[in-house]
Each structure stands twice: as C-alpha cells, then as structure tokens.
Amino acid sequence: MTAASPAERAPSAGRIRTDRLIDIAYRLRAFGIVAALAILIVVTSIVQPRFLSGQEVNIVLGNTSILALLTLGEAMVIISRNVDLSVGSVLGLSAFVSGSTFGHLHGVPTGVAILVAFLVGIGVGAACGIVNGALTTIGRVPSLVVTLATLYIIRGIDILIIGGGQVVASSLPDSFFQISLRNFHNVPYLTMAVAVVIGIGAYYMRSYRSGRDLYAIGSNPDAARLVGIPSGRRVFTAFVLSGSIAGAAGVLWASKYGTLDSTAGSGYELQVIAAVVIGGVAIFGGSGSVIGAALGALLLSTILAALYVGGVSPFWTQAIAGAMILVAITIDRLISLQLTAALRRRRSREST
Amino acid sequence: MSAPARTPAVEERIPVLSLQHASKAFGAVQALEDVSIDLFAGEVHGLVGENGAGKSTLVKILAGVHPPDTGSIVVGGLPVFLAGPADARDSGIAIIYQEPILFPDLTVEENIFIGRQPLTTGRRIDRHAMRSHVMEVFQRLGVRLDPGRIARGLSIAEQQIVEIGKALSLDAKIIVMDEPTAALSAVEVARLFGVVDSLRASGAAVLFISHRLEEIFQLCQRVTVLRDGRLVLSRELEGLTADDLVRAMVGREIVERESEQQAVGGTVLLVERLTREGFFTDVSFEVKAGEIVALAGLVGAGRSEVACAIFGIDSYDAGSVTVNGRGLRRGSPTAAMSAGVGLVPEDRRQQGLVMDLSISRNVALASLGRLQRFGFILSSSERRFAEDWAVRLRLRYGRLSDAANSLSGGNQQKVVLAKWLGRQPTLLIVDEPTRGIDIATKAEVHRLLDELAGQGVAILMISSELPEVLHVADRILVMREGRLITEFTHAEATEERIVAAATGQLEEGAA
Amino acid sequence: MNRRELHERLRPTLRWEAGLVVALVAIVLLGSLASDKFLTKGNLFYLCLSIGELAIMTLPLTLIIITGEIDLSVASILGLCSAMLGYLVLHGWSLGWAFLVVMALGVAAGLFNGVLVTRLGLPSLAVTIGTLTLYRGLAVVILGPNIVSTFPQRYTNIGVNPVGNSFLSWSVVFFLVLAVIFGVVLQLTPFGRSLFVIGQNKDAALYAGIRVKRVKLLLFVVSGFICAFAGILYTFRLSTAVQDNGLGLELNVVAIVLLGGVSIFGGKGSILGVVLAVAVYAALQNALFLTSFPQRAFGIVTGCLLLVSVLVPNAGSFVRRARAAWRRREARNTPAVEAN
C-alpha cells in the first residue's frame, strides 16, 4: 500500500455542495429577519396604508431605539453563553437616579446637567455590571442565577431609594426631553445615534480579537480555556458593557417618559431577550450577530405596531412576543436538525 | 511492507524533544516508570503499546496537562517545565487528539487563529492575512479545505486537518498524534499520511501513536514500545518485524485457560439486513445461546453503532432485530431490556456509570423495577442486591456507599457488568469489555463471560483487542466501513486474517 | 447498616438542611424579639396565607431542576389559569366545570412546554422564557381589563379562615400534603431515583433504560397541573381574578428552590430542603413585614438569599482552586529537576 500523493485530488462535488449548504443555512437565518420584516411591512401597508406614513415610521423607530440599544449589550452576553436578566432593573434604577440628578444641579447650564445625568446613569449601570461580572467569573456562579438575584436586589434598591415618591416630568429640563423627540425627516435623532452605537458594537464583535473571543467562549468554553483565551476577563467586560448600556438606556428612558416610579423597566429584560433570540442569537451562545439582535428588536416593534394599526387589540402584545420567541428558536432548531441529517447522508454517500 | 528512506546518521543529532526518565503515578497505579524517548526533527516516531501501557499518560505529560512525578522534558537542549497546555504550546509542542476540540460556530480559519489573529492598524483583525496564511498552510499540507466554512459539520478527518493546520501556524516543532486514524476511513487515512509526510519533510518531529502496526511500518522511522508503563524498546524501525513489535508489546505470559467449546443452543439474537444511513448497511448475523460472538474491526467500522441500534439507544432505517423469536421494537431500550437484552457500553465513564452515584445505586440502576415493593424502593434492598453481586464478581471497594468514581477501571467495569447481570439477560452485548483494565481483572472478565456462556447466555462482544477476540470468541464477525465483511470460526481465525479483513486487504486464501 | 454508614450517607444532605434549620431558628428568634406580634396565631396565619401558593409551585419545579431542566413559566401558568377561572365565572359557568377546564388548561400548558423540550429538543430555559411571556399574554387576552370578584364565599373563605382551630391556611395544608407525596416519590420510588440519574448523567440514564424524554415530559405536565391548582387557590385567596395575577412570582419560586439546596446544574436536591427553604423565606418575609421594612423592596432579601445559596457551596471549591493556582505558581518558579 503506497501513500497517496500529497496533492489532493479535487474535492468531490458532494463535498462542495455540503459546505455551501451549511453556509446557505446560516446566511438564510441572518436574512430571514430582514425578509420577515419586509413581508410584514408590505402586507400591513396593503391592509392599512397608514402604516407607511411618516408618523407611523417615527413611532415605531422611537419605540425601537431603547430596545435595540439594550440588545447590543444583551447579545454580547448571550453570545458568550451567559445571560443578563438584570437589565430591566438596571434601567429602572438608572432612570430614576439620573432623573433625580437634575434636582441637585440647579445652577448648572442645561447641557452640562444633561451630560452629568448621562454619566451618572452609565456609572450606575457599570457598577451593576461589575457586580454581575464579578459574581459570574470569580464566584463561578451561573449567570442565570447571578442576574436573577441582581434583578431582585437592584429593583429592591430602586424601591428603597424612591420610597413612595417619583420623579415628575416637570422637574426635568425641557431640552432633556428633546433627546427623544427631535427628528430628522421623521427619523428620530435618537434612532440614528443608537444605530451608530450598534454599528460600532457590531464592528467590534466582528473585527477585534476580544469580540471574536466572546464567540469562542460561547461556542466551546472548555476549548476556549485550553487555547488560552482569558475567558474570565472577557465575560466580565461583557457584563460591564451590558450594565453600562442598560444604564445609558435608563437615561434615555427618563428622557422619553419623564415621570418615573419604581416600576420603570420592570419586566423589560424579557422583551430584550426575546428580541435577541428572534434576531438569531443562539440562547447557548457562539453564534448570531449584534446587528441581527437589533433587527430582532425592530421586527418585534414593527409587529406590535402592525397589530395596533391593523386594529388588533393591544392586549395581544405580550402573547405575540412570547409566540415569536418560540417560533424563532423552533425554526433555528429545525434548520440545524435538517442540516445534521443532510451532512450525514452526504458523508455516507461519499465514503462508500 | 518496507520502511521509508532512512534519516542521516543518528548519533550526532540533538533531539528536538527528549523526555528523560519520566515517571508518573495516579494514586496506587504507576502509569509510567522511568520512560525516556527522543524525538528528532524530520522524523516520524511511532509509539505502540496495548491499552493501559502508558501511552496516553505520556501524551498528557507532553501536553502539559500533568507534570511528571520525576524526570524532565528537554526541548531543543533546554529543560522546560510545563505548568499547563499554554507552556507546551509555547515550547512548540502540538497535540492532535483523536477527537479534536474545535469551536463549532467559528470558521476554519478562525479556529486556527482564535486568540492570535493577525492584526492591521488599530488592532483590527486582518482577514486577508489570516486567509492567505491559512491557504498557505493548507497548501503545505497538501489539502483542500475551505477556510471560510463553519467548523460545525466537519468530519473527524477534516477536524484533524484543522488541528494540524493550527499546529503548523503555531510553528510547532513537535507534533503528537494520538491514534489519529482510529475514526478515519481508508481514503482519509491515506490523505492523513500525505499530510504527515509533508510535516516530516518540513522538519517537524512527529510522534505517531497507533494500534495498527502496518501504519507504523508505513510511516515511521523510529519506534518506541511501552508495556505496563515501562519502556521495552526504543530504536530505529529498520530491521524490526511486526512480530518483534507484537512480542515486545505483549511480552508476559498470558495465564488464561483455553476457553472450552460450549454447547450451543437455539438462536437468541437474529439481526437481518440492519441498516442505518451513514453508519452501517445491510448487517445480518445471529447469536445462539451459549455462544460468544465477537464483532471485530477497526474503530469507526460501525460496530458500536450496530450494538446501540440493537439495544434501542439509536433507531435504524431498515432491517429487523429478533430476540428469542420475537421481533424487537426499534428505538426503545425499555423494550430491549424487557426482551432480556443488556448492553455494557463502550464508554464506561460517560455511558456505563453515574460516576458521582454510589456503587450500590449504580448496580441497582437497571433493576429498580424488580427491587421495588408496592412501588417503593429502599436503599437497604439496593444495598443487599449490590452486596450480593459484589461478592459474586469479587469487587474490590471501600464501602458500597462510595461513589463509583473511587473505583479502579477494572472494578468500575465489574459494577457495570453487575448492573446487567442482575437482570439475568438472555443476550448480553459487551462493547470493549476490557478496555483500560489491568491484566488480572481482564482475565476475570473473560472467565466471567465464559461462565455466562456456559449458563446459556448469548454474548455479543465488540472488541478491538485481537488477542481477546481470538481467545474468547466462538465465532468472529469482521466489520469494515459499516458492512459485515466476513466471518471466522474460532479454529480458522488468526490475527493476520482478522486484520486483513478489517483493513480491506483480503489476501488469497482468506476464509 | 451500621451507625457509621448512616452518618456517612446523611452527612452531605445534613449540612445544607441543618444550615436552613439554623437560619430558621435564628429568624424566628429575631422576629419574635423584634415584634411581639410575630408568634401570634393571627400573624402565623397571615404568614401561611402569603406563602401557600408559592410553596406549592416549588414542588414540581424542584423535580424539574433535579433533572437538569428549568420551568420559568410556573407563575404565568398560575396567572393564565386564574384569568381563565375569572373569565368562566364571569360568563356564568358553574364552578365544577370551571375547575375542570382550568386544570385541563394547566395540563395543556405544561404539555406544550414538555413537547417543545423533549420532542423538539429545545433548551428549557429558552422555551420557558417564551412560554412565560406567551401564557402571561394569553391571560391578558382572556380577561382583558376585567376584574372578577364574584366568587362564592364558600371558596374565598380559603383566604379568610384557617384550617380548624390552627394557624395553618388551607394552602399550606395542601402544600404539606403534596410535599410528603413529592418527597416520598423522589426518595423512595424508582421514578424518583431516575430523576437524580437523569440530572447527573443523561447518557448513563438512557443506557440504563430510563425513558428520559417521557420522564421530563411528565414532569412538565405535572408542573402545569400543580400550577393550575395553585392558580385556583390564589384566585380564591385574593377573591380576585385580574390579568396580572402572580406577575413576577416565578423568580421567587426559583429562588426558594435553589435556597433549598437544589443544584441549578441538576442531579442534587431534596424536598425536605425545599420545605425548610419555604419556611425560612416565609419567616423572613413576615419578620421584615412586621418591622415595617418596605414590602416591595423585599426583593433585595430574596436576591441575597439566592446568591448566598449558590456562593456557599462554591466557597469550598473556590478556596481549593485558589490554593492550586498558588501551588502552580510556586512550582513554576522553582528550577526544573535536573536530568541525571
């Protein structure tokens, strides 16, 4: 028996088709959201032409901005095979704390006050993220449990601080509200700003080592440690970022809604996770993209808006969000099952 | 079979890596004792030995997973201490495992470069440089693989190529391959040999571990034989025959009684045209009461898959399984167990036992239904049951409440056997029954199988250890690449014939 | 079995449960010191009322977590069933039929969870996050903005009268009975044993003939059933059905189960531990309530309890790991052994 020549003969057509099959499947998922979005808009506009009006677009984009911003941080965490359930509570705490800072900054010019409010909000979020990250990486506690606990604790702190009070819209400067209200041809400036931030996040996840490390950690945590990826540091950073983003989102929430009590953001984390999952990020990490997650947020908001415009009772909102999560993960699962079966069939045919 | 061209004069060369007088013990087991091995650049060095000879311990030491208790590692003339896999990597050592550990969601090129991707300005990942580097590596290896495809779905052979690519891109000077051909098809093996040749030509030192002696002779220039943790020989391959190697590997006198021919009863297991796409095709055979039928073949031939299909762990696409005259429902281990079938699985730690569970609970695990009274089960009845079997199988343990983890490999296997024997099966399937077990317990297990056959149990034994197969089996079936190739009786079977059938080289005059 | 073996076998379980008992005693002591109302029959009855349904929901969740899965939709099933009960009563159904429909609804909800997890192989975390939202949403759809309080007093007295002359509420009595049943099943039946095996090593369970999929499906169905029952109790206790009954309770349930010593990774846990955890949680909540700690901020306590219950087991291994890392750093700094 002689050894085969080093030059490999051309891979059989079967193998090429298999490789392409996998690629197609993955790209399909990524574009699936865009396709769903497009179909949805087309169908709804036919039924209710008002849907394409500038005002409607403005509302949808406005509703999506904060949600999409949150999906950036959450996607990074979920990609690394963790989860951050505390974002809603962090948002609420940050909204209140940052909103209250205006009360302490009477003599200060408004622009500076707004800047300070942002810094305070982000700082609050970062602090929460540090706690989450430390408990997960150093304490070796599963992130599900950690962020479940901090969800409670942070909300409780929020309640304690607020007491029975609330931040009233009238205590906030006018220009603060303008952040969410100013538009450029029906596109809120806020949306554009969020899009830029998400773009930066997406670029980071794609083109920087530490971003790719998060994918590796989520894809195979043991292998990641074996090849020397500093998993602890990366996951910690992801949580700090997630917290900071939630903090920033809290400030934006304050600017959007004005009146804040202790229920701000309560339960919001589920919508964020729903958006991320719908956007194609696998719940066990390793795959998906930040852009996909943001599109998931857009899809979720658009569906809700479409239903509203279509005359469906708003009571259906939550049920539909839940159904969408289930549909998204089911589709992902069916695709991967078909893929594995197809691969096995191809391989058996090749080797005989 | 001749060895490839000799490398130039050996004496003046400095080994790229030298393991010197390494010893390693795990608890009471001395896995390695005073083993020294030299690896030279541009050479493929074969490492052979039976299961338990110490090969994997040696690999772990080189990988930096365990430090040797005594002895040292010298790389390029300088002693190094490997505190972990990272140190091994830094010293230029790369390990290619039988089952590579990749990131399934990342692309091939990312798998190769994760954590150290080439960068452009601003610390961004330079994808062009990454792609061209990977293409260059693949070209050097003589393989074609799309660097941009996702790692999920790659065959084991392709995964190994990726690992080797990673090793090359890390400028590994020492590449250790731990039984790489075990799960490969003949075509893939040939391709791998081409790759190993390229590695050798480019000056790397390759340590090639394999059970298949013909591969050693085809590929290697030097060979080391380990036996029971000790070094038996380490020299150039030229001048040695396969017999020499086998004798060195086996060495001791196997004190086992010649198993007696048993009286054979009716057909217990009838498998007809069993097919599972991608795993095995058109397999038909039968096992009678009192018979021990061995299923031989290389790893990856589909034997364990057939066993799992019979037992119902996996389903199958076509064909039928009949036990004691009754058709057996596919895909249901419960149905198989009710029909009197038991399966001692291949992976003791992952499939055969629950390691953290106590010995008594493990033994009782498959018999809970029978041990219960009025729907309840008491720990005391489990314990009595386990005690009974522990005595019968001569189990060595501390307390029955100890975790299965605390037992030696041989005793763990006895626990698995007890679990199934406790159900008094009419058909017992054992998959690699003595893998990783010490000699004494091995003989006990063989004796036990003989006894069971004598009591009329039908036994289907899957084994890669030819001496065991030749010694214990009444009939030997050989599988290759998912098909049943041929059958030998105990009398007509020899190691060469079985190996020939298993590797697809049927010589003239084969049975 | 001699005394030593008994001691050995009970030791690991004893540690956690003992800790809970100590905590319980401490809380009771502190509570009675802080407020002389603490140990009164009336207060204890109130304590039982507040914990009853929550406690009942912890039982099936314990079994589910032991097998390595999770069910976050428990409180949503409670809310859904509560909403359905209100809806049916609002539309004039007799209570007998309403009960049947509501329990069937719970079973269906659990079945849906179970099918997605076992037949489709979807991760239970993701599935139950989805169904938690879905069921909550369906509750909103069913009941809308309506608030139903027209329940016969015979039933709503559950929230007013204790059992007999004791301080126990009906819900707690149901809980204790169910706890005994679940505990016996878990520890003393083959089925219960198989749950631990599934949680510790799913493959070994399969290879031992355990029908893993069927077992898990059954557990989810039981969870749905029990949560429906809890939903009925909850509705009667508050004598109100409203669209967000039980909102947010799922996290409390998970917290209590983990506090009870059940490992989030599966394979370990006991009903006794969970019962003690229920007692600890209830006592703590009650004690704080009496000391006018703001009720809605009680989440801080739940969260801290949760963290403590997972950090404490890790503490031992944390120390070990730190020491191993230290040793490795030392070894690295000593020169390599010279070859002889």
Secondary structure elements and pairings:
The complex is a heterotrimer of chains A (352), B (511) and C (340).
Chain A: H1 13-47, H2 54-79, H3 87-104, H4 110-137, H5 143-162, H6 174-181, E1 183-184, E2 187-188, H7 189-207, H8 209-219, H9 221-226, H10 231-257, H11 268-278, H12 290-309, H13 317-351
Antiparallel strand pairs in A: 1-2
Helix pairs in contact in A: 1-12, 1-13, 2-7, 2-8, 2-10, 2-11, 2-12, 3-4, 3-5, 3-10, 4-5, 4-10, 6-10, 7-8, 8-10, 11-12, 11-13
Chain B: E1 17-26, E2 29-39, E3 43-48, H1 55-63, E4 70-75, E5 78-80, H2 85-90, E6 93-96, H3 108-113, H4 127-141, H5 156-169, E7 174-178, H6 186-201, E8 205-209, H7 213-219, E9 222-227, E10 230-236, H8 242-250, E11 267-276, E12 280-288, E13 292-296, H9 303-311, E14 318-323, E15 326-327, H10 333-338, E16 341-344, H11 348-352, H12 359-364, H13 368-371, H14 379-392, H15 409-421, E17 427-431, H16 439-454, E18 458-462, H17 466-472, E19 475-480, E20 483-489, H18 495-503
Parallel strand pairs in B: 3-8, 3-9, 6-7, 7-8, 13-18, 13-19, 16-17, 17-18
Antiparallel strand pairs in B: 1-2, 1-4, 4-5, 9-10, 11-12, 11-14, 14-15, 19-20
Chain C: H1 3-34, H2 41-66, H3 74-90, H4 95-118, H5 124-143, H6 153-156, H7 170-188, H8 190-200, H9 202-207, H10 212-238, H11 249-259, H12 271-290, H13 299-333
Helix pairs in contact in C: 1-12, 2-7, 2-8, 2-10, 2-11, 2-12, 3-4, 3-5, 3-10, 4-5, 4-10, 7-8, 11-12, 11-13
Query: Helical residue percent of chain C?
Result: over 70%
Number of strands of chain A: 2
Low-confidence stretches of chain C: 336-340
Oligomer: heterotrimer
- CATH topology type of chain C: ABC transporter involved in vitamin B12 uptake, BtuC
Interface with most residues: A-C, 47 and 46 residues
Name the shape of chain C in a single word: globular
- Report the sheet-strand fraction of chain A: under 5%
Show unreliable segments of chain A: 1-14
Number of H/I helices of chain C: 13
The CATH architecture of chain C: Orthogonal Bundle
Mean pLDDT of chain A: 84
Mean pLDDT of chain C: 87
Order of helices and strands of chain C: HHHHHHHHHHHHH
Q: What string, H for helix and E for strand, traces the elements of chain A in order? A: HHHHHHEEHHHHHHH
Name of the CATH first level of chain C: Mainly Alpha
